[in-house]
Amino acid sequence: MQILDNQTILLAFVVVIGLAVLLQAILLLIIFITLRKSASFIREEAENLHSSLMPVLFDTRDVLASSRETLASAQEFLTNAQGFLTRVSPKIEATAGDLAEITHGLRTQVAQMQSSAMEIMDDVQGQSNRLNHMVTGLLDTVDRAGSFVTNVVSRPVQQVSSILRMVKAIVESLRGPSTQRR
């Protein structure tokens, strides 16, 4: 085995430190290249984002400007509407009161018309019952008169008819028996 002296140990340290520095330099180079690629990629993405966001930002500014105008006109409309409602609300209340009175009056008139219609219907029904009794009585009287006339006329006609049959029978019997047989 060899005896390690100071120089050898120093040389070994210098070689190890040189290798460590070389390894560190290579790692730093790799990190630098990676960071450079990342920076260019980030720059491209930022440019893409910038190019896609700028139209949106401009459109948003336009929308905000038109929204402000719309809000101002809406606020003006609400102010006008509030003034209109302030002016018109007493008239609406008065109209509602008038409508309530008209409705009450109409209900009263409808109730009166219903009671009048019921009275008229009762009177009409009474008159129709009375007329029914009168017509029934008249028809019964006409029927009795017809029966009486029938009896008065038919009895003498029957009697006359009986007399005529009797005369016929007598005449035929006097004529002779040969005509009867035929």
Describe this structure in words.
It is a single chain. This protein has one domain. It has two helices and no strands. The model has no long low-confidence stretch (mean pLDDT 87). The longest helix is centred in the middle third of the chain and has 170 residues, at 6-175. The chain is mainly alpha-helical. The chain has helices at residues 6-175, 177-181. The chain is elongated, with a radius of gyration of 67 Å.
- Major sheet summary line: none
Estimate the strand proportion: under 5%
- Order of helices and strands, N to C? HH
Structural domain count: 1
Supply Rg. 67 Å
Unreliable residue stretches: none
Please count the beta strands (DSSP E, at least 2 residues each): 0
What's the overall average pLDDT, rounded?
87
From the helix content, strand content and strand pairing, which structural class follows?
mainly alpha
Number of helices: 2
What's the short story on this structure?
The protein is an all-alpha fold and 182 residues long.
Topology:
Elements: H1 6-175, H2 177-181
Q: What structural keywords apply?
A:
about 180 residues; mainly alpha; 2 helices
